[in-house]
Write a structure and sequence with these properties.
- This protein is an alpha+beta fold.
- It has three domains: about 10-115, no CATH class; about 130-235, Beta-Lactamase (2-Layer Sandwich); about 285-390, Beta-Lactamase (2-Layer Sandwich).
- The protein contains ten helices and ten strands.
- Strands 2-1-5-4-3 form a five-stranded antiparallel β-sheet. It has a five-stranded antiparallel β-sheet with strand order 7-6-10-9-8, covered by helices on one side.
- α1 (about 10-55) runs antiparallel to α2 (about 60-115).
- It is flat.
Amino acid sequence: MEPEEPKQQTSETEQAGHRLTSDRIITLDSLKICFIYLVFGILWIIFSDRIFLSLATQQEDLVMISSIKGILFIIVTTVFLFLLIQHFSRRLQDKNEQLRVQYDDLKSSREKIQQSKEKYRELVENANSIILKWDKHGNITFFNEFAQRFFGYTHDGIIGKPVMETLVPATESGSERDLRLLIEDIVRHPDDHVLNENENITRDKKRVWIRWHNKPLQDENGQFTGLLSIGTDITERRQAEEALQKAHDELEIRVQERTAALRESEERLKLKLDSVLSPDTDISDMEIINVLDIAAIQALMEDFSRLTRMSTAIVDMKGKVIESSGWRDICTKFHRINERSAGFCTESDLYLTRNLKPGQYIAYKCRNNLWDVVTPLFIGEKQIGNIFSGQFFYDDETIEDSV
Protein backbone atom coordinates (compact mmCIF):
# COMPACT_ATOMS: atom_id res chain seq x y z
CA MET A 1 0.00 0.00 0.00
CA GLU A 2 1.34 3.37 -1.02
CA PRO A 3 1.66 5.79 1.91
CA GLU A 4 -0.25 9.04 1.66
CA GLU A 5 1.80 12.01 0.55
CA PRO A 6 1.86 15.09 2.82
CA LYS A 7 -0.91 17.52 1.90
CA GLN A 8 0.28 20.67 0.13
CA GLN A 9 -0.78 24.04 1.52
CA THR A 10 -0.47 27.32 -0.30
CA SER A 11 1.47 30.21 1.15
CA GLU A 12 -1.66 32.38 0.95
CA THR A 13 -3.64 29.95 3.11
CA GLU A 14 -0.90 29.80 5.73
CA GLN A 15 -0.61 33.57 5.81
CA ALA A 16 -4.38 33.92 6.11
CA GLY A 17 -4.37 31.53 9.05
CA HIS A 18 -1.50 33.49 10.59
CA ARG A 19 -3.44 36.77 10.22
CA LEU A 20 -6.63 35.20 11.60
CA THR A 21 -4.81 34.02 14.71
CA SER A 22 -3.18 37.45 15.20
CA ASP A 23 -6.55 39.23 14.75
CA ARG A 24 -8.12 36.94 17.33
CA ILE A 25 -5.36 37.69 19.84
CA ILE A 26 -5.63 41.47 19.21
CA THR A 27 -9.42 41.39 19.66
CA LEU A 28 -9.18 39.44 22.93
CA ASP A 29 -6.49 41.75 24.33
CA SER A 30 -8.50 44.84 23.33
CA LEU A 31 -11.56 43.49 25.11
CA LYS A 32 -9.47 42.81 28.20
CA ILE A 33 -8.14 46.42 28.20
CA CYS A 34 -11.66 47.86 27.81
CA PHE A 35 -13.04 45.67 30.55
CA ILE A 36 -10.27 46.60 32.99
CA TYR A 37 -10.67 50.31 32.13
CA LEU A 38 -14.46 50.06 32.64
CA VAL A 39 -14.07 48.45 36.06
CA PHE A 40 -11.42 50.95 37.08
CA GLY A 41 -13.57 53.96 35.95
CA ILE A 42 -16.62 52.74 37.86
CA LEU A 43 -14.61 52.16 41.02
CA TRP A 44 -12.96 55.58 40.65
CA ILE A 45 -16.29 57.38 40.37
CA ILE A 46 -17.84 55.58 43.32
CA PHE A 47 -14.99 55.85 45.79
CA SER A 48 -13.45 59.18 44.69
CA ASP A 49 -16.75 61.05 45.10
CA ARG A 50 -17.14 59.77 48.61
CA ILE A 51 -13.58 60.61 49.56
CA PHE A 52 -13.52 64.15 48.08
CA LEU A 53 -17.02 65.11 49.27
CA SER A 54 -16.00 64.23 52.79
CA LEU A 55 -13.18 66.80 52.47
CA ALA A 56 -15.38 69.69 51.17
CA THR A 57 -16.76 72.12 53.74
CA GLN A 58 -18.07 74.88 51.46
CA GLN A 59 -19.67 75.15 48.02
CA GLU A 60 -16.53 76.78 46.58
CA ASP A 61 -14.47 73.80 47.71
CA LEU A 62 -16.66 71.46 45.68
CA VAL A 63 -15.74 73.21 42.43
CA MET A 64 -12.03 73.03 43.17
CA ILE A 65 -12.23 69.44 44.37
CA SER A 66 -14.18 68.44 41.24
CA SER A 67 -11.47 70.00 39.04
CA ILE A 68 -8.69 68.29 40.97
CA LYS A 69 -10.53 64.95 40.78
CA GLY A 70 -10.88 65.29 37.00
CA ILE A 71 -7.19 66.14 36.58
CA LEU A 72 -6.18 63.22 38.80
CA PHE A 73 -8.50 60.87 36.90
CA ILE A 74 -6.90 61.85 33.57
CA ILE A 75 -3.38 61.42 34.98
CA VAL A 76 -4.11 58.09 36.67
CA THR A 77 -6.02 56.65 33.73
CA THR A 78 -3.31 57.77 31.30
CA VAL A 79 -0.66 55.97 33.34
CA PHE A 80 -2.95 52.98 33.80
CA LEU A 81 -3.75 52.74 30.08
CA PHE A 82 -0.06 53.07 29.22
CA LEU A 83 0.80 50.15 31.50
CA LEU A 84 -2.05 48.03 30.14
CA ILE A 85 -1.20 48.75 26.52
CA GLN A 86 2.48 48.08 27.16
CA HIS A 87 1.68 44.77 28.91
CA PHE A 88 -0.64 43.49 26.22
CA SER A 89 1.63 44.74 23.44
CA ARG A 90 4.42 42.62 24.83
CA ARG A 91 2.09 39.66 25.02
CA LEU A 92 1.06 40.26 21.44
CA GLN A 93 4.70 40.39 20.39
CA ASP A 94 5.37 37.11 22.20
CA LYS A 95 2.36 35.46 20.55
CA ASN A 96 3.46 36.71 17.15
CA GLU A 97 6.95 35.35 17.75
CA GLN A 98 5.53 31.97 18.78
CA LEU A 99 3.34 31.88 15.71
CA ARG A 100 6.27 32.80 13.51
CA VAL A 101 8.37 29.98 15.02
CA GLN A 102 5.50 27.53 14.58
CA TYR A 103 5.01 28.67 11.01
CA ASP A 104 8.73 28.24 10.28
CA ASP A 105 8.73 24.79 11.91
CA LEU A 106 5.67 23.73 9.93
CA LYS A 107 7.20 24.96 6.71
CA SER A 108 10.49 23.21 7.47
CA SER A 109 8.69 19.96 8.40
CA ARG A 110 6.69 20.04 5.17
CA GLU A 111 9.83 20.48 3.14
CA LYS A 112 11.56 17.60 4.95
CA ILE A 113 8.56 15.33 4.43
CA GLN A 114 8.47 16.21 0.77
CA GLN A 115 12.19 15.52 0.39
CA SER A 116 11.97 12.12 2.13
CA LYS A 117 8.71 10.98 0.50
CA GLU A 118 10.23 7.88 -1.11
CA LYS A 119 12.02 6.84 2.04
CA TYR A 120 8.82 7.41 4.02
CA ARG A 121 6.86 5.14 1.67
CA GLU A 122 9.45 2.38 1.95
CA LEU A 123 9.51 2.49 5.74
CA VAL A 124 5.72 2.26 5.94
CA GLU A 125 5.57 -0.70 3.57
CA ASN A 126 8.41 -2.58 5.29
CA ALA A 127 7.50 -1.92 8.94
CA ASN A 128 8.05 -4.87 11.30
CA SER A 129 9.33 -7.15 8.55
CA ILE A 130 12.80 -8.42 7.70
CA ILE A 131 13.46 -7.58 4.05
CA LEU A 132 16.64 -8.51 2.22
CA LYS A 133 17.84 -9.14 -1.30
CA TRP A 134 20.57 -11.61 -2.16
CA ASP A 135 22.07 -12.48 -5.50
CA LYS A 136 22.40 -15.87 -7.16
CA HIS A 137 25.78 -16.35 -5.48
CA GLY A 138 24.19 -16.03 -2.04
CA ASN A 139 25.56 -12.56 -1.22
CA ILE A 140 23.39 -9.90 0.46
CA THR A 141 22.66 -6.83 -1.72
CA PHE A 142 19.94 -5.10 0.34
CA PHE A 143 19.13 -5.14 4.05
CA ASN A 144 16.33 -2.93 5.40
CA GLU A 145 16.47 -1.03 8.68
CA PHE A 146 14.25 -3.48 10.56
CA ALA A 147 16.51 -6.35 9.52
CA GLN A 148 19.56 -4.37 10.67
CA ARG A 149 18.02 -3.87 14.11
CA PHE A 150 16.84 -7.46 14.33
CA PHE A 151 20.10 -9.14 13.35
CA GLY A 152 22.38 -6.48 14.86
CA TYR A 153 24.24 -5.42 11.69
CA THR A 154 24.81 -2.00 10.13
CA HIS A 155 24.09 -1.42 6.46
CA ASP A 156 27.78 -1.18 5.54
CA GLY A 157 28.61 -4.16 7.73
CA ILE A 158 26.19 -6.55 6.03
CA ILE A 159 26.06 -5.60 2.33
CA GLY A 160 28.15 -8.02 0.27
CA LYS A 161 28.34 -10.66 3.01
CA PRO A 162 27.22 -14.21 2.24
CA VAL A 163 23.90 -15.41 3.65
CA MET A 164 25.54 -18.64 4.86
CA GLU A 165 27.39 -18.32 8.16
CA THR A 166 26.28 -14.67 8.44
CA LEU A 167 22.51 -15.11 8.79
CA VAL A 168 22.15 -18.88 8.37
CA PRO A 169 24.11 -21.36 10.52
CA ALA A 170 25.66 -24.46 8.97
CA THR A 171 23.36 -26.82 10.86
CA GLU A 172 19.99 -26.44 12.52
CA SER A 173 19.69 -26.96 16.26
CA GLY A 174 17.96 -30.14 17.32
CA SER A 175 17.30 -31.58 13.86
CA GLU A 176 20.95 -31.11 12.72
CA ARG A 177 19.60 -30.31 9.25
CA ASP A 178 22.32 -29.16 6.83
CA LEU A 179 21.25 -25.60 6.03
CA ARG A 180 24.04 -25.15 3.48
CA LEU A 181 22.27 -27.68 1.27
CA LEU A 182 18.99 -25.80 1.81
CA ILE A 183 20.48 -22.47 0.64
CA GLU A 184 22.05 -24.11 -2.38
CA ASP A 185 18.74 -25.70 -3.32
CA ILE A 186 16.89 -22.39 -2.92
CA VAL A 187 19.31 -20.76 -5.38
CA ARG A 188 19.04 -23.65 -7.86
CA HIS A 189 15.26 -24.09 -7.56
CA PRO A 190 13.83 -20.80 -6.23
CA ASP A 191 10.28 -21.61 -7.35
CA ASP A 192 10.27 -24.64 -5.02
CA HIS A 193 10.99 -22.49 -1.97
CA VAL A 194 8.44 -19.70 -2.15
CA LEU A 195 7.80 -20.34 1.54
CA ASN A 196 10.14 -21.96 4.03
CA GLU A 197 11.02 -21.93 7.73
CA ASN A 198 14.53 -22.37 9.04
CA GLU A 199 16.78 -21.39 11.88
CA ASN A 200 18.86 -18.22 11.57
CA ILE A 201 21.59 -16.61 13.62
CA THR A 202 22.07 -13.00 14.73
CA ARG A 203 25.34 -11.13 15.04
CA ASP A 204 25.58 -12.01 18.76
CA LYS A 205 25.13 -15.73 17.88
CA LYS A 206 21.55 -15.91 19.10
CA ARG A 207 19.51 -18.61 17.33
CA VAL A 208 16.14 -17.44 15.96
CA TRP A 209 13.49 -18.99 13.74
CA ILE A 210 12.29 -17.09 10.65
CA ARG A 211 9.41 -17.80 8.30
CA TRP A 212 10.60 -16.67 4.84
CA HIS A 213 8.57 -15.64 1.80
CA ASN A 214 10.91 -15.74 -1.21
CA LYS A 215 10.38 -14.14 -4.59
CA PRO A 216 12.80 -14.86 -7.46
CA LEU A 217 14.24 -11.76 -9.17
CA GLN A 218 15.00 -11.60 -12.90
CA ASP A 219 16.75 -9.16 -15.21
CA GLU A 220 15.32 -7.70 -18.39
CA ASN A 221 16.18 -10.92 -20.24
CA GLY A 222 14.30 -13.11 -17.78
CA GLN A 223 17.49 -14.51 -16.24
CA PHE A 224 17.48 -15.32 -12.54
CA THR A 225 19.55 -12.75 -10.63
CA GLY A 226 18.65 -13.40 -7.00
CA LEU A 227 15.85 -13.36 -4.47
CA LEU A 228 13.78 -10.92 -2.48
CA SER A 229 13.12 -12.47 0.93
CA ILE A 230 10.64 -11.18 3.49
CA GLY A 231 10.91 -12.77 6.92
CA THR A 232 8.80 -12.91 10.09
CA ASP A 233 10.18 -13.88 13.48
CA ILE A 234 8.45 -17.09 14.67
CA THR A 235 10.88 -17.95 17.47
CA GLU A 236 8.25 -17.80 20.21
CA ARG A 237 5.86 -19.96 18.21
CA ARG A 238 8.55 -22.58 17.61
CA GLN A 239 9.49 -22.55 21.29
CA ALA A 240 5.84 -23.05 22.21
CA GLU A 241 5.57 -25.97 19.76
CA GLU A 242 8.72 -27.55 21.16
CA ALA A 243 7.44 -27.08 24.72
CA LEU A 244 4.14 -28.69 23.70
CA GLN A 245 5.94 -31.62 22.11
CA LYS A 246 8.11 -32.02 25.19
CA ALA A 247 5.02 -31.99 27.41
CA HIS A 248 3.40 -34.59 25.12
CA ASP A 249 6.46 -36.81 25.34
CA GLU A 250 6.55 -36.46 29.12
CA LEU A 251 2.86 -37.32 29.27
CA GLU A 252 3.49 -40.42 27.15
CA ILE A 253 6.22 -41.46 29.57
CA ARG A 254 3.94 -40.89 32.54
CA VAL A 255 1.17 -42.88 30.86
CA GLN A 256 3.60 -45.72 30.28
CA GLU A 257 4.74 -45.53 33.89
CA ARG A 258 1.14 -45.48 35.12
CA THR A 259 0.29 -48.38 32.84
CA ALA A 260 3.22 -50.35 34.22
CA ALA A 261 2.18 -49.46 37.77
CA LEU A 262 -1.39 -50.54 37.06
CA ARG A 263 -0.19 -53.82 35.60
CA GLU A 264 1.88 -54.40 38.69
CA SER A 265 -1.10 -53.45 40.82
CA GLU A 266 -3.26 -55.82 38.81
CA GLU A 267 -0.88 -58.65 39.56
CA ARG A 268 -1.00 -57.85 43.25
CA LEU A 269 -4.78 -57.57 43.09
CA LYS A 270 -5.02 -61.00 41.46
CA LEU A 271 -3.06 -62.44 44.33
CA LYS A 272 -5.43 -60.74 46.77
CA LEU A 273 -8.47 -61.95 44.87
CA ASP A 274 -7.16 -65.49 44.91
CA SER A 275 -7.25 -65.41 48.67
CA VAL A 276 -10.50 -63.47 48.81
CA LEU A 277 -12.35 -65.81 46.48
CA SER A 278 -11.06 -69.01 48.00
CA PRO A 279 -13.87 -71.19 49.41
CA ASP A 280 -12.68 -71.03 52.98
CA THR A 281 -12.42 -67.20 53.07
CA ASP A 282 -15.34 -64.96 54.10
CA ILE A 283 -15.17 -61.80 51.96
CA SER A 284 -17.44 -59.94 54.34
CA ASP A 285 -14.61 -59.90 56.85
CA MET A 286 -12.28 -58.18 54.36
CA GLU A 287 -11.91 -54.39 54.24
CA ILE A 288 -11.78 -52.72 50.80
CA ILE A 289 -8.43 -51.19 51.74
CA ASN A 290 -7.04 -54.72 52.00
CA VAL A 291 -8.42 -55.68 48.60
CA LEU A 292 -7.43 -52.71 46.40
CA ASP A 293 -3.98 -51.20 45.72
CA ILE A 294 -4.92 -47.80 47.14
CA ALA A 295 -1.65 -46.07 46.14
CA ALA A 296 -2.08 -46.99 42.49
CA ILE A 297 -5.79 -46.15 42.52
CA GLN A 298 -5.04 -42.79 44.18
CA ALA A 299 -2.52 -41.89 41.45
CA LEU A 300 -4.99 -42.92 38.73
CA MET A 301 -7.81 -40.89 40.26
CA GLU A 302 -5.58 -37.80 40.62
CA ASP A 303 -4.74 -37.96 36.92
CA PHE A 304 -8.44 -38.36 36.14
CA SER A 305 -9.31 -35.30 38.26
CA ARG A 306 -6.63 -33.18 36.58
CA LEU A 307 -7.93 -34.11 33.15
CA THR A 308 -11.68 -33.77 33.86
CA ARG A 309 -11.68 -31.35 36.85
CA MET A 310 -14.11 -33.72 38.53
CA SER A 311 -13.89 -34.78 42.15
CA THR A 312 -13.56 -38.52 42.82
CA ALA A 313 -13.65 -40.80 45.85
CA ILE A 314 -13.79 -44.47 46.78
CA VAL A 315 -15.99 -45.10 49.82
CA ASP A 316 -16.43 -48.41 51.65
CA MET A 317 -19.77 -49.83 52.75
CA LYS A 318 -19.52 -48.04 56.10
CA GLY A 319 -19.23 -44.60 54.51
CA LYS A 320 -15.48 -44.30 55.12
CA VAL A 321 -13.58 -42.43 52.40
CA ILE A 322 -10.70 -44.66 51.22
CA GLU A 323 -9.46 -42.47 48.34
CA SER A 324 -10.25 -38.90 47.27
CA SER A 325 -8.94 -36.45 44.68
CA GLY A 326 -9.93 -33.07 43.31
CA TRP A 327 -12.34 -32.32 46.11
CA ARG A 328 -13.71 -28.78 46.33
CA ASP A 329 -12.83 -26.52 49.24
CA ILE A 330 -16.52 -26.20 50.09
CA CYS A 331 -16.49 -29.92 50.94
CA THR A 332 -13.06 -30.39 52.55
CA LYS A 333 -12.90 -27.09 54.42
CA PHE A 334 -16.56 -26.65 55.37
CA HIS A 335 -19.02 -29.50 54.82
CA ARG A 336 -16.68 -32.19 56.18
CA ILE A 337 -15.54 -29.95 59.05
CA ASN A 338 -18.90 -28.68 60.28
CA GLU A 339 -20.54 -31.33 62.44
CA ARG A 340 -24.02 -30.91 61.01
CA SER A 341 -23.04 -30.75 57.34
CA ALA A 342 -20.55 -33.61 57.86
CA GLY A 343 -23.48 -35.70 59.05
CA PHE A 344 -25.30 -34.84 55.83
CA CYS A 345 -22.22 -36.03 53.88
CA THR A 346 -22.16 -39.42 55.63
CA GLU A 347 -25.93 -39.74 55.23
CA SER A 348 -25.62 -39.08 51.50
CA ASP A 349 -22.70 -41.50 51.09
CA LEU A 350 -24.61 -44.31 52.80
CA TYR A 351 -27.79 -43.54 50.86
CA LEU A 352 -25.94 -44.02 47.59
CA THR A 353 -24.60 -47.43 48.63
CA ARG A 354 -28.01 -49.09 48.87
CA ASN A 355 -29.66 -51.20 46.18
CA LEU A 356 -26.96 -50.76 43.54
CA LYS A 357 -26.33 -53.48 40.97
CA PRO A 358 -23.18 -54.08 38.89
CA GLY A 359 -22.99 -51.68 35.96
CA GLN A 360 -25.55 -49.24 37.39
CA TYR A 361 -25.00 -45.65 38.49
CA ILE A 362 -27.06 -43.16 40.45
CA ALA A 363 -27.02 -39.35 40.32
CA TYR A 364 -28.02 -37.89 43.67
CA LYS A 365 -28.27 -34.36 45.08
CA CYS A 366 -26.91 -34.48 48.61
CA ARG A 367 -28.41 -32.57 51.53
CA ASN A 368 -25.60 -30.01 51.11
CA ASN A 369 -27.09 -29.27 47.66
CA LEU A 370 -24.24 -30.66 45.53
CA TRP A 371 -24.65 -33.39 42.93
CA ASP A 372 -22.84 -36.75 43.19
CA VAL A 373 -22.75 -39.74 40.85
CA VAL A 374 -21.95 -43.19 42.23
CA THR A 375 -21.32 -46.63 40.72
CA PRO A 376 -20.68 -49.75 42.82
CA LEU A 377 -17.53 -51.87 43.19
CA PHE A 378 -18.19 -55.63 43.15
CA ILE A 379 -15.98 -58.66 43.66
CA GLY A 380 -17.94 -61.54 42.32
CA GLU A 381 -21.45 -60.93 43.63
CA LYS A 382 -20.29 -59.07 46.73
CA GLN A 383 -20.34 -55.24 46.81
CA ILE A 384 -17.28 -53.97 48.64
CA GLY A 385 -17.58 -50.20 48.05
CA ASN A 386 -18.51 -47.42 45.64
CA ILE A 387 -16.80 -45.01 43.30
CA PHE A 388 -18.02 -41.44 43.67
CA SER A 389 -17.59 -38.49 41.32
CA GLY A 390 -19.29 -35.20 41.71
CA GLN A 391 -19.49 -32.03 43.82
CA PHE A 392 -20.93 -30.12 40.87
CA PHE A 393 -23.95 -28.17 39.61
CA TYR A 394 -25.68 -28.73 36.28
CA ASP A 395 -25.43 -25.93 33.70
CA ASP A 396 -29.19 -25.39 33.56
CA GLU A 397 -29.68 -25.67 37.33
CA THR A 398 -30.88 -22.73 39.40
CA ILE A 399 -28.57 -22.36 42.41
CA GLU A 400 -30.23 -21.40 45.66
CA ASP A 401 -27.85 -18.87 47.21
CA SER A 402 -29.86 -18.74 50.43
CA VAL A 403 -29.22 -22.43 51.24
